[in-house]
Amino acid sequence: MDSRFAGKVMLVTGAASGIGRRTSERLIAEGAVVHGADLAEVRIDGVLGHKLDVTSESAWQTLIMSIAEQHGRLDGLVNAAGVIRMGSTMETTIEDFRLVMAVNVEGTFLGCKHAMRVMQRHGAGSIVNLSSTAGLCGSPGAAAYTASKGAVRLLTKTSALEAIAMPSRIRVNSVHPALTNTPMADAIVEQLGGSNEIRQALSDLMPSGRLAEPDEIASAILFLLSDEASYMNGSELVIDNGFTAQ
Ligand SMILES: NC(=O)c1ccc[n+]([C@@H]2O[C@H](COP(=O)([O-])OP(=O)(O)OC[C@H]3O[C@@H](n4cnc5c(N)ncnc54)[C@H](O)[C@@H]3O)[C@@H](O)[C@H]2O)c1
Fold first, then answer.
1. Backbone Cα Rg of the chain
2. What is the C-alpha separation between 119 and 4, in angstroms, rounded?
3. 145 catalytic, yes or no?
4. Model-level pTM?
5. Total domains present in the chain
């Protein structure tokens, strides 16, 4: 068994589903101690599950403090909790916009803030934030989501530069998956009308004609979490099989 993460303490949000779930499973398989947090119940063999609403600062503080007390360290954080509400700039309600920004941006900000404080004490750590190809270029019909993922991209770079200026070895990077085969992709299809034609049209947007699989995103996340990525900081790792190369 690969032991890149033997004994490393990791926290993954959005661990109940999709990319966060697969990332947690892969970390467990590589020997990490994994805390999985989500609004929904996290049920993965070997993962220590926690209920967490990422928009609550007090809940973040409680969780991160308890992990730090338990292990004396936090080696990695993956901010994978996220939501999407499809809608153009003219159609999106302010309620939907605020929800998407609260979960995707405020949730990621709070995770970075409190994880970096613990990592600074320990001297090192790696944070991976889930942005998206929708954080790199416009995506008509996804106004709130693109705004949130663009914000995650630049928050990541700012946090990385702040980390580099500190004596500790903290790295903060973002990953930018194209459409990935998770319940979020199902939610997009549903919000666009739910037909097979919509599902096919989304696949057809991809140069390869297929969506990414969560495992393919988890591989990139694990690389950034690992010491193999020691010179990657403030980077945006695009995992899109050519979508943004067009
Ligand atoms: N699936 C895609 O096509 C795709 C593409 C690019 C980026 N992403 C991003 O990857 C991340 C993971 O997405 P996914 O596809 O695995 O989605 P998913 O819907 O399968 O999982 C998201 C998880 O986040 C949790 N969550 C939602 N609100 C929360 C909150 N307030 N507090 C805690 N947990 C909360 C949900 O319960 C769910 O378990 C998201 O940030 C998403 O925006 C997804």
1. 17
2. 19
3. yes
4. 0.98
5. 1
Range of the domain at 26: 9-177+213-233
Nearest residue (CA) to ligand 1, atom 26: 81
Distance CA 169, CA 99 (A): 33
Instruction: Classify burial at 99, counting beta carbons within 10 Å of its beta carbon; exposed 0-12, middle 13-18, buried 19 or more.
Output: middle
Q: Please state the rounded mean pLDDT for residues 131-139.
A: 98
- The torsion region of residue 48 among left (phi > 0), alpha (psi -120 to 50) and beta comes to beta
The response to whether residue 212 sits with its C-beta less than 6 Å from ligand 1 reads: no
Indicate the pLDDT class of residue 3, thresholds 50, 70 and 90.
confident
pLDDT > 70 fraction of the chain, expressed in percent and rounded: 99
CA-nearest residue for atom 21, ligand 1, is 17
Of the residues 5, 97, 109, 145, only one is catalytic, namely 145
Which pLDDT band, with edges at 50, 70 and 90, does 2 fall under?
A: low
Q: Looking at the domain assignment, is residue 4 inside a domain?
A: no
Q: Assess if residue 205 is contained within a domain.
A: no
Please tell me the predicted confidence (pLDDT) of residue 50: 98
Q: Whose CA is nearest to atom 23 of ligand 1?
A: 14
Q: Can you tell me which atom of ligand 1 is nearest the CA of 104?
A: 41
